[in-house]
Specification:
The complex is a heterotrimer.
Chain A: E1 22-26, E2 52-53, E3 58-59, H1 60-64, H2 70-74, E4 80-84, H3 86-89, H4 98-110, E5 115-116, E6 132-134, H5 145-148, E7 157-160, E8 181-184, E9 188-190, H6 200-213, E10 217-220, E11 235-238, H7 248-253, E12 256-260, H8 265-275, E13 280-286, H9 291-300, E14 305-309, H10 324-337, E15 345-349, H11 355-363, E16 368-371, H12 373-378, H13 402-427, H14 432-435, E17 442-444, H15 445-453
Parallel strand pairs in A: 9-16, 10-11, 11-12, 12-13, 13-14, 14-15, 15-16
Antiparallel strand pairs in A: 1-4, 2-3, 6-17, 7-8
Helix pairs in contact in A: 4-13, 6-13, 9-10, 11-13
Chain B: H1 2-6, E1 9-14, H2 21-24, H3 26-32, E2 36-41, H4 49-57, E3 62-67, H5 78-95, E4 103-107, H6 116-124, H7 138-145
Parallel strand pairs in B: 1-2, 1-3, 3-4
Chain C: H1 3-7, E1 27-31, H2 40-44, E2 50-51, E3 58-59, H3 77-80, E4 86-90, H4 104-116, E5 138-142, E6 159-160, E7 172-173, E8 177-179, H5 189-202, E9 206-207, E10 224-228, H6 237-242, E11 245-249, E12 260-262, H7 269-275, E13 283-285, H8 295-308, E14 313-318, H9 324-333, E15 338-342, E16 351-352, H10 353-358, H11 363-377, E17 384-388, H12 394-402, E18 407-410, H13 412-417, H14 441-444, H15 449-473, E19 489-491, E20 503-504
Parallel strand pairs in C: 8-18, 9-10, 10-11, 11-14, 14-15, 15-17, 17-18
Antiparallel strand pairs in C: 1-4, 2-3, 5-19, 5-20, 6-7, 12-13
The chains are: A alpha/beta, B alpha/beta, C alpha/beta.
């Protein structure tokens, strides 16, 4: 049995206090100076341990308060109230919700799975990833030890083209050339960021984290710098310029090169293979309604890895775009029908925002996935996209300390990894490879609604 | 005018003034960079003298507290409390020799709707404006580095 | 069968005001400095919002204020105050309360029912939440005119729990509900005891959860369901023998496929003694039963229980996977009398957020699937189906029965009756700041047992009232007539109001 993959975590404090959903509005005027003030009774000692973060004027009162309302209800003069925090409301957008951002912050800080009591408080279902549930087994499955103890649930996946059969010559020698295969200990790579402030420090944080985790960062050829040299073994170089610029030195050290899909994709792959046959080639495809056909063709033509990319909301290009989860189901299904699925590796990127999306996109047919914005959020990004408009980053991400950033990203990925184990454990599946395409072990909103609710109110 | 350009303004404001405050203030943030800083509040009654003092200390030359119209506070008297707190902070800064105009309270007039950027532009366009603060403080140093 | 013949009459509702100085309400009432203490408002308000004071009247119960709709009334204090000193507005802190499932309105209406035993009148939506799906989009189709008026006392809300036809006792409960397991350790002994006492007063049952069977519960043995769960904490032959119903817990909706986890902080010496464990050490309840790997193994366990206690009914609590219908059939053939389906959105204990939201299906899907499947197998009449996990209101209860359950099991609603505010911090630090889900000695003292018992009783009396009204409007005399009546429900996403004959509510 391989050694158990474990990500070491320790709390990494935030540079800025977290923005919380609500704020405390506590007044002193009219205070009766009670002998026993309700503020002294605070279970969380919110009023005693008070501080102010000056850059963003964040009061620790708001951050530390856990909304128990005891002071609100207890003050005889009703001088303490709560109010929704406008800064929280302004976080992210309708896809990258404040709840998602806040949960990512806490995972990056603690490295732990978010746990809470008193049931689930969110919407019944929603679009995209919120329109599916994963399965569980009542009895037959590995024990909880798989998650916390001795037994092993593997999250390792293999990236590359797999040969379906070996061929031999008359003398019994293998004639099949086995293409390169890269193993990553968890099905997550770091994809190019759709936007960010000046990236030098951020990129170093990503690389440092990828190295520690044993995964890869997709980097634009145009952004290569001498700093990156020592991380080359964890770089997927994306060709956004002239391939002739690639020096032999770099080619020798790179394990993976990513090329954009297009008319010359075969020539490009051949060119790279000629320079170094051990290099794995990813083909980056923007998802669109014809992606399934294209994936079949590329696979037939010998593609090793298809990197299927949606935008930051998980949507493909074009009018009336399809969500990544639906398109992946189609692509996976088509490849299965054609008998090609096991030959090629599919990596899905775009709109992966939470740990649950990891499991869900794999169930929908991806072998692995790329994550982007959450890496920034781990470093306290608020998904305000001010950087995109040329406005200074409110949390100064451009000057982030790469080592601190890497620790935060590691924490977040560790929490995601643990959550993937929880989902796998609940389903009784012992490895992430087997989760791929297991749509029969998921429940889809559309199917359940049709089966259960659509007939209501009609006599049968 | 030169002085005005160099001055740094911080605006604390009640969220009820502008529900889309985050989108509306961006253009100004882009134009003025670190010269302007906005702090939306759940209620203007949330402001404390300490926040105002810290704002000056961290490099603000002028601090505004913008409240919803008198009588319109959904906490009933939040904007009245804000006024009292600001007055208190004004007394404090006067004691250390600063003009009390560095802190100013603006009640949005009743019955008007505005956006935070329109309002901020009005405030920035005012003729009477206190120049940059001459006091050097630790926080201020740090703030200036980012310009 | 009328519930009264079987179980006597219901306890009386008694007013049990909030434990805190100011109850949280939707409205804010303030008396300004213009007040001349004429006392007019105190005399006017029929809801008891004011109390006379020495300088000016005191607002003592603004949560009982009718709100802005009171302006129609003769006794509207705001306009009748001779010096216009009273202001009435929405309570701004109210919007911070609650979440999409348990909205501030649902919390406040549950508190109102627990305080008074009656339905709220303060412009609170006490029927649905804001989750945008499931119960919150489903409505009853009530006939526009009820064919005949059925007197209240001719309507029975009772159900029988043993439908198997074996020779074990038939146990009936006067309301189609019992209270779900919350272990000693996860909640305080006061909370636990209050729930059991409320169950006893109402003639129903309360489950112990898996943290053992504290001696304090012994006087209420007849109303206790003891749980045999994977951790087997505190399970002893004598505890199995004491009770009328034994529950096997395979999984729970909040963390389907995952075990329980009691954090070390909550394992006080008392908790440790009960669970035969070491104080301060976190306790994992493993998943699954290490001795159950097949339906045959499951039957063996059910047989053991039946052998140890010849009179007990056996309940099996399962979660809601894709094959939930098969699971229930398996349980039936293994000899279970009751199967409890625990949907994924409920639960009271600490659980990973990812599990609560994503693993296993909501109860609104599971119950109809199971009901239909059992009908097709011809065994629906032989087993009692109890739904849990996300039942918040009397309307949820009635809807899930119409979707095919015989009754429901509740947990969170009880906690809300005890003024849980759903801050979701049950597990952190000293535990619940409001003294409900904690074993911290000081915080436990925040709750007084008589108060807590009565609050829970009050709430369920209000539920009984609502269920009776629903049955009456549907022209039914017995809640059992409601089971599986999909034709009486409409999902607003799939049916337009003009497509139905009747009133949607």
């Amino acid at each position: 049995m391989p050694p158990k993959y474990h990500i070491k975590t320790e709390p990494v404090p935030s540079r800025f206090p977290a923005i919380t959903r609500s704020g405390v509005i506590a007044w002193d005027e009219g205070c009766l100076k009670c002998h026993r003030c309700v503020k002294k009774d605070c279970v969380y000692k919110v009023y005693e341990k008070r501080s102010l973060e000056v850059r963003e004027m964040l009061d620790s009162l708001d951050t530390a308060c856990k909304d128990c309302f005891r002071c609100v209800q207890g003050c005889p003069q009703r001088l303490i109230q709560k109010g929704l925090n406008p800064q929280y409301k302004a976080l992210g957008d309708s896809y990258w919700t404040p709840e998602i951002i806040a949960a990512l912050w806490s995972q990056a800080e603690s490295g732990r799975i978010p746990v809470s009591g008193a049931g689930y408080g969110g919407p019944f279902a929603g679009p995209g990833f919120d329109a599916m549930w994963t399965d569980m087994s009542e009895i037959v499955r590995p024990t909880r030890d798989g998650i916390h103890g001795r037994e092993y649930i593997s999250t390792t996946v293999d990236i590359g083209r797999k040969v379906m059969a070996l061929e031999f010559d008359i003398a019994g020698r293998i004639t099949t050339t086995v293409p390169p295969l890269v193993e990553i200990p968890l099905p997550i790579i770091f994809d190019m960021l759709p936007w960010s402030p000046a990236r030098r420090q951020i990129t170093l944080a990503l690389l440092e984290a990828a190295q520690a985790l044993g995964t890869f960062v997709v980097m634009r050829q145009s952004e290569m710098s001498p700093d990156v040299a020592r991380y080359l073994a964890n770089v997927i170089l994306y060709i956004d310029g002239d391939m002739e610029d690639l020096r032999g030195e770099i080619l020798k050290n790179l394990l993976i090169i990513e090329i954009p899909d297009g008319d010359h994709v075969e020539e490009m792959q051949k060119f790279i293979k000629e320079k170094n046959s051990g290099t794995l080639v990813f083909i980056r495809m923007e998802l669109n309604p014809t992606s399934a056909e294209r994936a079949v063709k590329l696979t037939r033509d010998g593609a090793e890895v298809l990197h299927l990319v949606a935008d930051e909301y998980g949507l493909e290009k074009g009018k009336d775009p399809c969500f990544i989860k639906e398109r992946m189901r189609e692509i996976h299904g088509r490849l299965v029908e054609e008998g090609l699925r096991d030959e090629v590796t599919l990596i899905a990127s775009g709109g992966i925002a939470m740990a649950e999306h990891v499991a869900k996109i794999i169930i929908c047919g991806a072998d692995a996935l790329g994550v982007d914005i959450p890496l920034l959020v781990a470093m306290e990004c608020r998904v305000c996209r001010r950087c995109k408009e040329g406005i200074a980053c409110p949390v100064e991400l451009d000057s982030v300390d790469p080592l601190w950033g890497a620790e935060r990203i590691k924490n977040m990925v560790a929490a995601w990894h643990s959550q993937l184990l929880e989902v796998l454990g609940a389903m009784g599946i012992r490895e992430a490879r087997r989760l791929r395409g297991e749509m029969g072990r998921a429940m889809f909103f559309e199917d359940l609604e049709k089966e259960v609710f659509a007939s209501m109110g009609k006599r049968v | 005018m030169d002085q005005k350009k160099a001055a740094r303004v911080m605006i604390f404001f009640c969220q009820r003034i502008d529900a889309e405050q985050d989108a509306h203030r961006r253009l100004l943030e882009k134009e003025l960079g670190s010269q302007i800083k906005f702090f939306p509040l759940p209620c203007s009654g949330r402001i404390e003298p300490l926040h105002l003092m810290r704002a000056l200390e961290s490099g603000a030359d002028k601090v505004y507290v913008v409240t919803c119209p008198e009588g319109a506070c959904c906490y009933r008297e939040g904007n009245i409390r804000a006024r009292k707190r600001l007055a208190y902070a004004q007394r404090l800064i006067e004691e250390i020799g600063l003009a009390k105009e560095r802190l100013e309270l603006i009640h949005v007039p009743a019955g008007t709707t505005t956006t935070i950027d329109t309002l901020a532009r009005e405030l920035l366009a005012r003729e009477v404006f206190v120049g940059p603060l001459s006091v050097k403080a630790q926080g201020q140093e740090r703030q200036r580095r980012h310009i | 069968m009328s519930c009264k013949e079987d179980t006597g009459s219901y306890p009386k509702a008694q007013t049990m005001p909030s434990r805190f100085r100011h109850a949280l309400g939707k409205h804010r009432v303030t008396i300004g400095s213009a007040c001349n203490n004429c006392g007019h408002c105190v005399a006017l308000c029929p809801y008891g919002v004011y109390k006379a004071g020495s300088r000016r009247p005191k607002v003592i119960a603004e949560h009982l204020c009718l709100g802005l709709s009171c302006s129609q009334n003769e006794f509207y204090c705001v306009s009748r105050c001779p010096v216009q000193a009273i202001s009435l507005q929405l309570n701004p802190s109210f919007e911070v309360l609650g979440d999409r499932r348990w909205t501030a309105d649902l919390l406040a209406s549950t508190w109102h029912m627990a305080e008074t035993g009656r339905l709220p009148y303060q412009d609170l939506n006490y029927k649905i939440g804001d989750s945008g799906g499931g119960f919150d989009r489903i409505r009853f189709i009530f006939p526009k005119q009820s064919s005949k008026e059925i007197p209240d006392d001719a309507i029975s809300t009772a159900i029988e729990l043993n439908r198997s036809g074996d020779n074990r006792p038939n146990i009936a409960i006067p309301l189609p509900l019992y209270l779900g397991g919350m272990s000693f350790g996860s909640v305080s002994i006061v909370t636990m005891l209050a729930r059991v006492r409320a169950a006893a007063a109402l003639g129903t049952f309360c489950c112990t959860g898996e943290g053992g069977y504290p001696d304090e519960l012994v006087p209420y043995d007849d109303h206790v369901i003891t749980q045999v769960a994977t951790g087997l904490f505190g399970v002893r032959e004598e505890t199995i023998k004491r009770v009328r119903i034994v529950e096997f817990k395979y999984a729970q909706g909040a963390k389907p496929g995952l075990g329980g986890h009691l954090l070390g902080d909550k394992v006080t010496p008392a908790v440790a003694a009960m669970r035969e464990a070491v104080a301060g050490n976190a306790l994992f309840s493993p998943f699954p039963f290490h001795s159950v790997y097949s339906v045959e193994d499951h039957k063996k366990h059910v047989d053991w229980i039946k052998e140890i206690n010849h009179k007990a009914l056996v309940a099996v609590k399962v979660s809601t996977p894709t094959d939930v219908d098969m699971v229930v059939v398996g349980s039936f053939y293994a000899g279970a009398h009751i199967v409890q389906l625990d949907g994924s959105y409920g639960g009271t204990g600490a659980a990973p957020d990812i599990a609560k939201k994503n693993i296993a299906m909501p109860i609104e899907y599971a119950v109809p699937k199971v009901h239909t499947f059992l009908q097709a197998e011809g065994i629906r009449d032989k087993i009692t189906v109890i739904a849990s996990g996300g039942i918040r209101t009397a309307y949820d209860m009635a809807k899930i029965i119409a979707m095919g359950a015989d009754g429901v099991c509740l947990g969170t609603a009880d906690l809300v009756a005890l003024e849980c505010i759903r801050c979701h911090h049950c597990e952190s630090g000293r535990g619940c700041a409001r003294g409900i889900a904690t074993t911290d000695p000081a915080l436990t003292k925040l709750i007084e047992i008589e108060w807590a018992t009565q609050r829970i009783v009050n709430m369920y009396l209000a539920w009984q009232r609502q269920l009776t009204d629903i049955l009456k409007r549907l022209g039914m005399r017995n809640v059992t007539e409601l089971v599986g009546r999909f034709d009486l429900l409409a999902h607003l996403d799939y049916i337009k109001p003009d497509e139905v004959e009747g009133e949607l509510n």
